[in-house]
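Cross-posted from the bioinformatics board.
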Amino acid sequence: MLLYPDFYFNNIREIKLEFLQTHNIKGLILDVDNTLIDYDKKLEEGTEQWVQELKKAGIKFCIVSNTNKRDKVKQVANTLDIPYFYFAKKPLKKGFMDAKKKLDLKAENIAAIGDQIMTDVIGANRCKMYSILVKPIAEKDIFITRIKRPIENKIIKSYLKKVEKEKV
Ligand SMILES: [Mg+2]
């Protein structure tokens, strides 16, 4: 299902090394807005440590952001010391494929993490990568995102229902 994420977490720091190893995930593509930073461009506490620890374990990272604000993305990328692509036009494949090249991994060994179904999840699914949805850091989002949320929430609800059903 193109609209459903493969996995759903409360935040990126809940994604542990053991989980990645279980699914043979060796590289992570990260969204920026509301996944790594809040509306005030602040990284969430513990995020830097999360990245560094996974890096030490050999996990590769690349940022793919839809924003056209290069400075904002660059600052986050520099802080975390990972490569980045901005103005990526997700869910188009290009940004994901650029990142895949940078990571030098197969799609099946990559997971893309983001807070939006319409961009992050659909894009990752189209590229046959794992898609991981996280809850948005702040709901104070830009206008366009606010429009999309009701639809997103509906999809998430039906997704969670499906996951619950499969557990039984
Ligand atoms: Mg986002």
